[in-house]
Design a protein that fits this description.
Blueprint lengths: L1 E8 L4 H10 L4 E11 L4 E9 L7 H8 L5 E7 L6 H13 L4 H12 L4 E6 L6 E5 L20 E3 L11 E8 L1 E11 L6 H19 L2
Helix pairs in contact: 3-4, 3-5, 4-5
């Protein structure tokens, strides 16, 4: 399974032309998500999750997309989990069915929701910042976590270049319940989190807190 992030013309037929090009190299499209509309220049950013049959070189996916006029591949990588906007809805459904666990559910689901690799809930309400919950593959934070709090609103964050475990990740974070508790999410190697993705995380974080309060 592979994830392609593309810039395509924001006009009817563009996505269909890309899908046709991918079909010609026997790629099986599993999910398509419009990540962002860029009305200032008439383009859109789309994520496409595809599978390729044995024997087909992954580079052919990039070549197929680049063969379409005005299409640019800005990210290409292996992708091990399902994703897309339906994952937002699935996360909300799970949170509403178990309100007391809403925040834990968001932490666990956020890597799939945002096409990321790991997520962690950091708690700085005590004498030191602790990792309250983390998904698999989350790196060690060490002293850097204390420099991120308090956090007032959802935002992207600069990766600490001197930190071995975090330097390779692009980061986004949102406060949960207070500015001393935050959800931080990482993608190894990129792509950078877009403004629309930050907004989605902010909305889901606020929703998780609201649902948790009804428990």
């Amino acid at each position: 399974m592979f994830l392609l992030r593309l810039i395509i013309p924001d006009r009817p037929g563009s996505l269909g032309t890309v899908a046709t090009a991918l079909g010609e190299v026997n790629a099986d499209i599993h999910a398509i998500e419009i990540v962002e509309h860029r009305r200032e220049n008439g383009t859109a950013v789309d994520d496409i999750v595809v599978d390729v049959p044995t024997g087909v070189l992954p580079d052919r996916l990039v070549s197929a997309c680049n063969s379409v006029a005005d299409v640019e591949v800005i990210w290409f990588s292996r992708y091990g989990a399902g994703g897309g906007l339906h994952m937002d809805l699935e996360a909300v459904e799970q949170m509403t069915s178990a309100p007391a666990d809403a925040i834990d559910i968001l932490v666990e689901q956020s890597p799939a929701v945002l096409h990321a690799d790991w997520a962690a809930l950091l708690d700085g309400t005590g004498s030191e910042v602790k990792v309250a919950l983390e998904t698999s593959a989350t790196p060690e934070f060490g002293d850097v976590a204390a420099t991120w709090l308090p956090l007032k609103k959802a935002t992207t964050m600069a990766s600490p270049l001197e930190h071995k475990g975090l330097a390779e990740s692009v980061l986004v974070a949102a406060p949960l319940e207070s500015d001393l508790r935050m959800l931080v999410i990482g993608r190894r190697g990129g792509p950078e989190f877009l403004a629309s993705e930050v907004a989605r995380l902010s909305y889901l974080a606020s929703l998780a807190v609201t649902i948790r309060a009804t428990a």
